[in-house]
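Box 4.2: Ligand-aware structure prediction
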Amino acid sequence: MAGSRSSLRGGVRRGLAGIAVPPAVKLSRQADARAAAGDAAGAEPLYAQALAADPTLAGTHNNRGNALRALGRLDEAAAAYRAAVLHGLHEGMAHYNLGSVLRQAERQDEAEAAFRQALALRPDHAEAWNNCGNLLRDLGRFGGAAVDYRRALALRPDWADAHDNLGAVLYLLHEQGGEEDAAALARLWRRDHPDNPLARHIGAAIAGEEADPRAPDDYVRQTFDLFADEFDRKLAELDYRAPALLAGLLSDEEPAGDLDVLDAGCGTGLCAEALRPYARRLVGVDLSDGMLNRARARGLYDGLHEAELVGFLATHRLAFDLVMAADVFCYFGVLDDALAAACAALRPGGRLAFTVEALDPADGRPHRVATHGRYAHAEAYIRTAVANAGLMLRRCDRDRLRFESGEPVTGLVVLAGRPAG
Ligand SMILES: C[S@@+](CC[C@H](N)C(=O)[O-])C[C@H]1O[C@@H](n2cnc3c(N)ncnc32)[C@H](O)[C@@H]1O
């Protein structure tokens, strides 16, 4: 991130009749022009010349710091910002610039002191609170980081990055033994930002408060739009197997290529290759435009729709012979509406194949949202919900869906059918 610039304080204004612009100021202005054009390498020696002629130009020290930082000369940049402060630029901006470059140089203690100084001078600087939070997060001080992110959000309530940062750090705090502190902070997050999808969903999960029956649409959209570019690579790293396991359920039958198939929550289209041989027509539906763009690039779908899948299914009665939902119902707690809509969208004899993450029966609940925002389901609940939706359970296997933090994630791999006739 570029440092904040300073104009020449107390400098001589151009155009004031009879007053000459000192050479140091002229040089500094030439340097500013170069820097503004993105030429840090050209600007820096001009700043140095200006400061050799007049070392008291505080703003020039600051702007030279920016140029040095852009050139990756971090320690020299830090020295330049300190010189700016020494020569009177005792403003939040100079301390903030100093904190940012010290953080980049991994001089964390000095960086924190500089950020705190910046915030003492300018407590309304949301970016400084956020960056201070990032610094504490990197140092493993998750509770302190959360407090700083909350300050940033008090100033900029709609700042998606700061919400993202706060959610991530509360998750870490919770995972690393700070459950109570994380829950208390999550409750405050939800209270202060009731309309923010991340605060609502992840906040509830971490606070241990009642979650929505399924993840809010705007949470899903935002999460996967951000994740889309990395999704395939990350999932391959985690040895993601849901599409292959579901394809395995279908493999007892030779694909005739005559089915109308829906890939529900198709994401980037990882199921498309397995589904294509069965399909006369292969359609995908997903909430995330970013994921759909990736799916489109595969060139395997006959149609792709940006829509919520329960609503989509409900408006496509008797339209499909096969519906697949790989790793999608983990964004649902209550499955009744989704399964009933899937049943209604299937033709008699049609099949629904899906995975969920398995909830330990010892938990005692039908489903539970975890602090990372996904739900897990008890096998007994799945069996009942499938039956209640009017579907017949054909298979409900336990298998490894993928790894997470090095641990296997066990799932239920389910095949159900709409009774024929
Ligand atoms: C973990 S990804 C799985 C994608 C794909 N099925 C696969 O196996 O690679 C979950 C996908 O479900 C989508 N999704 C979650 N809830 C949804 C809903 N209610 N309606 C439509 N799409 C949804 C997300 O946008 C995301 O693309």
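In the box above, the bound molecule is S-adenosylmethionine. The two ends are 64 Å apart (CA to CA).
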